[in-house]
Amino acid sequence: MHSFAKREMDMNILVIGAAGMVGRKLVAALLAAGQVGGKAISALTLADVVAPAAPGGTLPHTLVAADLSQPGVAEGLIAARPDLIFHLAAIVSGEAEADFEKGYRINLDGTRLLLEAIRHESQNAPYRPRLVFTSSIAVFGEPLPSVISDSHEHTPLTSYGTQKAICELLLADYSRRGFVDGVGIRLPTIAVRPGLPNKAASGFFSGIIREPLAGQEALLPVDESVRHWFASPRSAVGFLLHAAALDTGLLGAQRNLSMPGLAATVGEEIAALGRVAGPKAVGLIRRVPDPVIAGIVAGWPQAFEAKRARALGFVGETSFDEIIRIHIEDELAVVSK
Amino acid sequence: MHSFAKREMDMNILVIGAAGMVGRKLVAALLAAGQVGGKAISALTLADVVAPAAPGGTLPHTLVAADLSQPGVAEGLIAARPDLIFHLAAIVSGEAEADFEKGYRINLDGTRLLLEAIRHESQNAPYRPRLVFTSSIAVFGEPLPSVISDSHEHTPLTSYGTQKAICELLLADYSRRGFVDGVGIRLPTIAVRPGLPNKAASGFFSGIIREPLAGQEALLPVDESVRHWFASPRSAVGFLLHAAALDTGLLGAQRNLSMPGLAATVGEEIAALGRVAGPKAVGLIRRVPDPVIAGIVAGWPQAFEAKRARALGFVGETSFDEIIRIHIEDELAVVSK
Fold first, then answer.
1. Which of A292, B166, B276, B291 has the greatest number of CB atoms lying within 10 Å of its CB?
2. Residue in A closest to B170 by C-alpha
């Protein structure tokens, strides 16, 4: 009796993609909270293609370095019957475009193998874990309205967006059939991304804030009128935790949600930087127009209604000043300790 | 030189799902036309899980009885490098719902194996066939507006609809990457379906016309106010042939199209039957309300704008009288010969 009661109240959590930027922040937040939706975390399994760092504290944990798309890996992760699964693992957009087979293998087959492992496990004995899946606004492509509604079609313009859109469909169907209790969340572009500049076409959105705050020059390849859709890393973690505890009875058959975010132009980003960090920081932004990047970014979503997600209690930022302050609090304050 | 010139002007066609109702009519139409888009048909391969009937005439043909989802089958079909491929093969909605694994194997994996076989063939030597894929209005699910626009999201409420929606995404991505020249067409509900009554929830839409025209009683399980979206089998074949010769440069990245159709209520169907076949035929319809069927049908699409398809020259029927007359011409006239 005791162990049964404990089992009902405790939560065994699996994080796939735990070594990534959002994954690491999610694990830290789970450890800090110690619970999800009022249930104490009893065990944590962290998986990624590279070994995730061990979480601090005394919580029983397992670290797994494995590729979800390889035979047996998903079954191995699901054998422990985690109550809650975060699936964040993916090949990023640029790599999925450069390596067609790898993108489909990791982003589509990996997710399908995970869903199949859960379905097979549910056929042995009742099992229906909560699965929180990170999708992307890359499922949307031209033609796009200036504000995208919750019922807009998916016409992805990249293989990455295609793979995410397919996984959303699978998540909804496996949930409808009762094999899993899925929630897919379409993340806005995350800003300010910590770390070094990368070659992603979206990199400058973070770079023009992050580099000047560190006293370094940042290149701006597009016009200040370019408008895009943002949330902070802190909000991304908040979305994941909210999805983990959400009453999925409210979702009906529509298991995938565009997350709330902040629509801001590059000019508004720069104005916010000026307010938060002063004109010297703004002066470190150097305009070097890049028609290739400008062309890519021109096809990207600018804003979403995100009515359903807001009504379900998901909360993002309301100003770019707030996004910059979160970066300072969560990244720079730690560094200067 | 001669064989090269011949190759450019001729067309080698593969029909997958050639033994089905639409497949058989398509093959008959291809043979009657002898050409597609001005190019003479030089060879025809007819494939299905059961051996398709041999086409009449003197055209070189190959009959293949094989399951597309089995290893090597797609490669075998693509080895002859067909210029034009019609992919109509699918497990129907009811069976895909009853047998989860079979539905995903045939409807998703079969199509993906076909796309992969084409991609691999294109890596040996330049190859980019036209692929016409039959999707379905089952990709749409609740909540639905009374008239569905060309940019409405896919929220399928069946595994069949999920599989079709996924194949649409794959078709678009493989086309965007240049591996195939795909056109996906979402067929309306086909009426009047020839043959015996079946157990499909949609069966009555055809049955209340077909059975009375044959002097037999037909059951009507829903209210006369139920509205749905129709095209004749002749239009379905017309859509396929039009898609085969379409200038796909006009499609951009959006390779999938909701076909035009006719929105009609059951009451309008019955009124048309009265006009075409008289009150005796109408008197053979027996109202036997079935709450289960009524419930299923209540979630189905009622009408589409289909603006893009109409602008691209796809043409459906404009009255149910026309749909009934086509059934009489194409099915009953043959029987009475």
1. B166
2. A162
